[in-house]
Amino acid sequence: MAIPTDVNRTFDTSLVDFNVNASFSTTESDPSDYGAVNHATTTKTPDVQPTSLFEEQNQEMPAQSQTSVSPVDIGSAPKPPTSVQHLPTQDTYDQWASIYDTDGNMLQSIDDAELETLLPDFLAPALSSSKSSSTKSAQDTPTLSLLDLGCGTGRNTAKLLSYAWPANLLVEVMGLDFSRGMLDVARTKLRPLMHNSKDKSKEEQNISLRLECTDCFPTISHPSASPLPSVPDGIGLRPVDAVISTLVLEHIPLLPFFATLAALLVPNGLALVTNMHAQMGAVSQAGFVNARGVKVRGSSFAHTVEETVQAAGECGFEVVEVRERAMSREDVECGRVGSRGGKWVGVKVWFGVVVRKVG
Asked: Where is this region: Disordered (predicted)?
């Protein structure tokens, strides 16, 4: 398995069929792009506020993954290429933050659908363990510590806060992200969940929330550094019982990702990781179109399921579960994704893995 050592080693994009009037799905690509020979013009543009526009793109396969994808529909003639701006991933997400939750991201919709069952299944063993882990006396309140690694705007942090936790359990939820823009949105979104005037506040229900802006994967830029992220307030981080990290892995080389995950977990701790499937990643990547019609991109890797499982094992994890998800006709017909999702029917777009840190 060839793992890039530089997160900025990404692949070039060839962008076609740009339609500013269509619905926007940030990771959605027109399968008619397969085989297109258009080359994007990289431009530098001033920072502007993003807008909800549709983008389509074609992307060459990264060197470390050689997954092939069969064309779903070849026939429409490509339109002139559109300019693309490659930015550091952190800058990309800072600019994307204001529309990240509202731009019709198809992959987020699939992730939400899968987590309806996967997240409760993941939390059940962690919850069971916390009930029996009181080490001082029978009167101690059991505690469960949870971390959302790369929490972004708090889409799944909210799921952790809203979970039906037992009244006698102390739940500590933390969200880490490197984008201040995304965390600003998360704070606004999550505040009502923590302070509901009609019911008890989350604090009164023994649920706490902490959000921190930090370099989540320090060994990428400093290979000799500790893989445990640091936070500036002096409180520091300690290993937690369970970690979720959703739609983050695309931007991180595999070994630094799982080394950080191992540092963040207690022995036998569990982690739930979801990501864009390599079949989709072969021709698509996360990004958005700004108000000037420029496609903004960070760095991305099309990690295969097999590579991901192998890297997890190399970093001291055992794999508990693997799920893969193809786009279905039902996803389109029921409105789970927009109509352009029809061009992805039959293509695997998502995968999730649950791993346990070997004690």
From this structure: 25-88
